[in-house]
Design brief:
The structure holds two protein chains of two kinds.
Chain A: H1 25-60, H2 65-69, H3 83-114, H4 119-132, H5 136-151, H6 156-180, H7 184-192, H8 197-226, H9 229-232, E1 243-244, E2 247-248, H10 257-265, H11 270-301
Helix pairs in contact in A: 1-11, 3-6, 3-8, 4-6, 5-6, 6-8, 7-8, 8-11, 10-11
Chain B: E1 28-39, E2 42-53, E3 57-61, H1 68-75, E4 85-93, E5 96-97, H2 105-111, E6 112-115, H3 126-136, H4 143-153, H5 157-160, H6 173-185, E7 191-195, H7 203-216, E8 221-225, H8 229-235, E9 238-245, E10 252-260, H9 261-266, H10 271-277
Parallel strand pairs in B: 2-10, 3-8, 3-9, 6-7, 7-8
Antiparallel strand pairs in B: 1-2, 1-4, 4-5, 9-10
The chains are: A mainly alpha, B alpha/beta.
């Protein structure tokens, strides 16, 4: 450049071959980071695996026909099961789902599609986000005041309402995300076919968003099925069947797996503690089963 | 967005007049007189009078941002979905103004079908995609028969007849676009609007869709926006050339010239058209 540019400019690429050189600085760094990531991943897995291991080892021992068909044992009784608690959990989570899914999905349609920028939507979204962090015992207090005090009894609907309050924000927020994630071109196609606004929502947006909505619903169901606190003073507990003589007795204290685990695990009796472990395993299996089922349903629609 | 105040923009300015009139105007299925199209305060298109003739393919060409898609989407009121859209002028479909007070835009879109730039099948089976419009219109006849017919017309039947239950999204891009065409023609709309239907496709799929358009021409009236001048030459009977006017500080599209495709490409009346078709700007 300055009149003396005879020498060739320095090469940018090193004058080495294309072979891998394992002791180069960046290779070592890459190795270090890879190892670090593996360690972190394994550490994150340890609690999960160890909980599952304990559940299977200690809970699996008593798993058999008996625990599904027998009623919880009293004090020094041997044997027994928690059939009524399984029924109670399924019924109360079912009630909660029946309340929270329609309200949640319809609210999500409003938030995502009808009035996303309206003042009402802003308030509702803020409320839902705040409610996701609601201590679950407060949901129980709410249902206690709303149902238990007015009807005068602990009951399955009271427990169901408490769980519904917990599920609602999760359902609303994930369903809103799922509906928003439907591509704009799909929406255009629906309008282009001559759909009215409600047809666009019912025939195209919601079916397309179904897998995403189901994921949110499943998260909410899984959380609700494992909640103890909101049931403690809404459904309480019971040692009797919810269905007696072929018809349901909803307006009475109702057993649930979560409360059974809570009660039995604190008891000084070996039999009850074993049953608490088995109940935990069954609860995990129920959640797993619902999860797999919803995925199958969701995939078939897509 | 600068609010445009000059509502009475002169139709001529330097290059090109607000063109209109094609040889035989009597056969126009759609007569779109778009004096001004606004998005909010932005004048997107002015002085464009397009006529879509029955049984022919009308091609809209022009540089980016010249408003050709806006014009197309104004014809079946798809632009109603865009906030701030306003139109001065009229769009007559078989003599009736689709922007009339008593007209339902949903009904307009059912009669004037649309195929989009990106293939956008619904997330449902191939069959359900094609049957969608039939069910929407509560078609009483044999749905299966109509679906097969539409897929045959769209030159897709042989490729999908064994996978009608598969998701429409599992098909290749070119197949998806032909599925969208089948979905649009299943309800037998009078007019098919195509907004750059091949721009997301590879050359082979493009060629198939073009052949398809030439076949469909016998039963349908088609208007197609294309960025590709060769495509316009291959398929269009009538070509409308749009350009952008940047003299007012904003980019406003307008119709420069319209005529038989051969004339537009070989002996255009306007200098601007000549420069565009000979590739001097794009």
């Amino acid at each position: 450049m300055n009149g003396q540019s005879v020498a060739a400019p320095p090469a940018v690429l090193p004058d080495t071959g294309l072979e891998r050189s394992p002791f180069e600085r960046r290779a070592l760094r890459s190795l270090l980071l890879t190892v670090g990531i593996w360690v972190a991943a394994v550490m994150a897995g340890i609690p999960l695996v160890s909980v599952l291991y304990m559940l299977i080892v200690r809970g699996g021992a008593r798993l058999g026909r008996e625990v599904f068909v027998e009623l919880p044992p009293a004090g020094f009784e041997m044997g027994g099961g928690f059939g009524n608690a399984i029924v109670g959990t399924v019924v109360m989570v079912g009630i909660a789902a029946l309340i929270s899914i329609p309200i949640g999905v319809l609210s999500a349609v409003f938030l995502a599609e009808l009035g996303p920028d309206s003042q009402l939507a802003r308030v509702a979204r803020f409320a839902a986000k705040t409610l996701t962090g609601l201590p679950s015992i407060l949901a129980g207090v709410f249902a206690y005041a709303a149902v238990v005090l007015t009807t005068g009894t602990y009951s399955a609907p009271a427990g169901g309402l408490a769980l519904a309050v917990l599920m609602l924000p999760t359902v609303v927020l994930t369903a809103e995300e799922a509906i928003r994630a439907v591509p704009k071109i799909t929406r255009d196609a629906a309008f282009g076919m001559g759909c009215t606004r409600s047809q666009v929502i019912w025939k195209v947006m919601l079916p397309t968003a179904t897998p995403g909505i189901l994921t949110g619903v499943m998260l909410a169901v899984a959380r609700a099925a494992g909640e103890t606190a909101p049931l403690l003073f809404t459904a309480l507990f019971s040692s009797y069947w919810l269905f007696e003589g072929g018809r349901p007795h909803l307006m009475q204290p109702t057993a649930s797996l979560a409360v059974l685990i809570y009660n039995f695990s604190g008891m000084p009796f070996e039999n009850q503690i074993e049953l608490a472990w088995t109940a935990s395993l069954v609860l995990v299996l129920i959640v797993l089963f619902i999860n797999v089922l919803s995925r199958l349903v969701g995939n078939r629609r897509a | 967005m600068t609010p445009t105040t000059q509502m009475k923009t002169p139709t001529t300015n330097g290059h090109g007049a607000g063109a209109e009139i094609t040889p035989d105007t009597a056969d126009a299925v759609i007569d779109g007189k778009l004096d001004q199209v606004y998005y909010g305060g932005f004048l997107a298109v002015r002085d464009s009078h397009v006529k879509i003739q029955k049984g022919k393919i009308t091609g809209f060409i022009g540089p980016s941002g010249c408003g050709k898609s806006t014009v197309l989407r104004s014809l079946n009121r798809m632009n109603d979905l865009i906030r701030g859209f306003r139109l001065k002028g009229h769009v007559q479909f078989r003599g009736k103004d689709v922007y009339g007070r008593d007209v339902d835009p949903v009904a307009v879109r059912r009669h004037i079908g649309m195929v989009f730039q990106q293939p956008n099948p619904f997330s449902m089976s191939v069959f359900d995609n094609v049957a969608f419009g039939l069910r929407l219109n509560r078609f009483k006849g044999n749905v299966g028969e109509r679906v097969e017919l539409a897929l045959r017309k769209s030159a897709l039947w042989d490729e999908v007849k064994d996978k009608l239950k598969n998701s429409g999204l599992s098909l290749s891009g070119g197949q998806q676009q032909r599925l969208c065409i089948a979905r649009a023609v299943a309800t037998e709309p009078s007019v098919l609007l195509m907004d750059e239907p091949c721009s997301a496709l590879d050359p082979i799929a493009t060629r198939r869709v073009e052949e398809l358009m030439l076949q469909l021409k016998n039963n349908y009236t088609i208007a197609i926006v294309t960025h590709n001048m060769q495509q316009a030459q291959r398929v269009a009977d009538v070509t409308a050339f749009f350009s952008v006017d940047i003299s007012k500080g904003t980019r406003t599209g307008y119709l420069v010239e319209v005529g038989p495709t051969k004339q537009i490409f070989e002996e255009p009346r306007e200098q601007l058209t000549k420069e565009y078709v000979s590739g001097q700007f794009s």
